[in-house]
């Protein structure tokens, strides 16, 4: 999904298990893509037809899809999310200092593009 957003393409996907898939959470209905109920082929076909035939909607969804990936999925945001996830897991084990230091130190020494 993020690859499609990166190319400025709107996404049509089913809305099952959004809580377990962070990419689907990034999709906002009628903002950067369209959702349909799982196993509903008619609804899927309707969403695809809508994107193909409604140019203003397609252009708006496409622009918003690209904005989503360029503003929410920057390197800084991704590193921060990674650090938060690893820190959360490590806190269960009781050792967050080492994880933060290691991740932040490796990020500071990596070359920037």
Strand content: 5-15%
- The span between the termini is 23 Å
Can you tell me the number of structural domains? Answer: 2
The largest sheet is: 2 strands, parallel
| Low-pLDDT residue spans | none
CATH architecture assignment name of the largest domain: 3-Layer(aba) Sandwich
Mean pLDDT: 80
Tell me about this structure.
This protein has 6 helices and 2 strands. By secondary structure, the chain is mostly helical. The chain has 2 domains: 2-72, Rossmann fold (3-Layer(aba) Sandwich), CATH 3.40.50.2000; 75-109. Strand 1 (11-14), helix 2 (22-26) and strand 2 form a beta-alpha-beta unit. The chain is elongated and about 55 Å long. It starts with a helix and ends with a helix.
What is the gist of this entry?
The chain is mainly alpha-helical and 113 residues long. The chain is 65% helix and 7% strand. It has helices at residues 2-6, 22-26, 41-53, 55-72, 75-93, 97-109; strands spanning 11-14, 33-36.
List the helices and strands and how they pair.
Blueprint (H helix, E strand, L loop, with lengths): L1 H5 L4 E4 L7 H5 L6 E4 L4 H13 L1 H18 L2 H19 L3 H13 L4
Index terms:
113 residues; mainly alpha; Rossmann fold; 2 domains; two-stranded parallel sheet; 6 helices; elongated
């Amino acid at each position: 999904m993020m690859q499609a957003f990166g190319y400025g393409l709107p996404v049509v996907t089913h809305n099952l298990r959004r809580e377990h898939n962070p990419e689907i959470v990034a999709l906002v209905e009628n903002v950067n893509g369209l959702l349909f109920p799982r196993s509903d082929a008619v609804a899927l076909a309707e969403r695809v037809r809508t994107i193909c035939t409604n140019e203003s909607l397609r252009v708006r969804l496409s622009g918003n899809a690209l904005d989503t990936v360029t503003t929410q999925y920057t390197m800084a945001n991704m590193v921060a999310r990674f650090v938060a996830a690893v820190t959360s897991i490590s806190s269960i084990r009781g050792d967050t200092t080492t994880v933060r230091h290691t991740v932040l130190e490796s990020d500071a020494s990596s070359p920037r593009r």
